[in-house]
Design a protein that fits this description.
Pfam families: Aldo_ket_red. The protein is built from 7 helices and 12 strands. The protein is α/β, with parallel strands linked by helices. The strands form 3 sheets. Strands 3-4-5-8-9-10-11-12 form an 8-stranded parallel beta sheet. Helix 3 crosses helix 4.
Length: 262
């Protein structure tokens, strides 16, 4: 394996991925600009794309973000086999709420099948439980992912926005390919889980690993948000490592931000 790559399930990818959420939500760029953003990411060497069925502006658009990713891959001149797409299910939205947890087996199946259609594929490479719905037994949500995997709709399954207890419980129910939580210098709540994943050999993509805002606040900005010209690595006294089990998943607002300029 290339020393600069990370092994994620059955593939080797660069340690920095691209979170496509902002390409689908309110305030999003045009579809053409979103595709140019994704092409800029591909051309920069990004090999891991993160999306979800609920990354859209209205409930009538479920799968919008995934359809953008599909279009970008179709229109890209590079090798599409080098790009791995991670999808997530278990979160919906309403006209007024961006996050509405629904971890029922019925919704997870509908979300997965919507993602399959939006991506235009027969099987999703990696599918994650997007969040834990307190109204649904965790075992039922995990069991739905296992069933989708057994049916061949998804190749690998994993978790997102979970705690240590849920991670430990899930290990008894599924083969966890990846755990995706927020982790940065400003948000260390998931550091114990990241350390547990490192000890057990599970991949831990870090959401929002680093950001800069014009105001200097500790919250990600909107139009002011951009990545640094070079990827930032969480190391040193922060207690955050960039070990072989960690990947960064920055979520740039638009292509110039990805390239380090406005």
């Amino acid at each position: 394996m290339n020393a600069q790559h990370r092994q994620v399930a059955d593939r080797e990818v660069m340690p920095i991925g691209f979170g496509a959420m902002r390409l689908g939500l309110e305030g999003r760029p045009s579809a053409d600009e979103a595709v140019r953003t994704l092409h800029a990411a591909f051309d920069a060497g990004i090999q891991l794309i993160d999306t979800a069925v609920n990354y859209c502006a209205t409930p009538a658009e479920f799968g919008y973000d995934e359809a953008l990713v599909s279009r970008a891959l179709r229109e890209w001149s590079g090798d599409r086999e080098e790009i791995s797409v991670v999808c997530k299910g278990g979160v919906l939205r309403t006209a007024t709420e961006q996050v509405l947890l629904n971890g029922s087996p019925e919704n997870l199946r509908w979300s997965c099948e919507t993602s399959l259609r939006s991506l235009g594929v027969d099987k999703i490479w990696m599918y994650l439980l997007h969040g834990v719905d307190p109204k649904v037994p965790f075992e039922e949500s995990v069991g739905a992912l296992v069933e989708l995997q057994r049916e061949g709709k998804v190749q690998h399954i994993g978790l997102s926005n979970v705690g240590r207890k849920q991670f430990i419980a899930a290990q008894e129910l599924m083969t966890i390919a990846s755990v995706q939580n927020g982790l940065s210098l400003w948000n260390r709540a998931s550091l114990p889980l990241a350390q547990l994943c490192a000890e057990s050999g599970h991949r831990f993509p870090c959401l929002w690993p680093a950001w800069l805002t014009q105001s200097g606040s500790d919250e990600p900005g909107h139009s002011s948000y951009r990545l640094a010209p070079r990827p930032l690595t969480c190391t040193g006294s922060s207690g955050l490592g960039s070990g072989p089990n960690e990947l960064d998943d920055p979520d740039p607002w638009r292509a110039p931000g990805l390239l380090g300029s406005r």
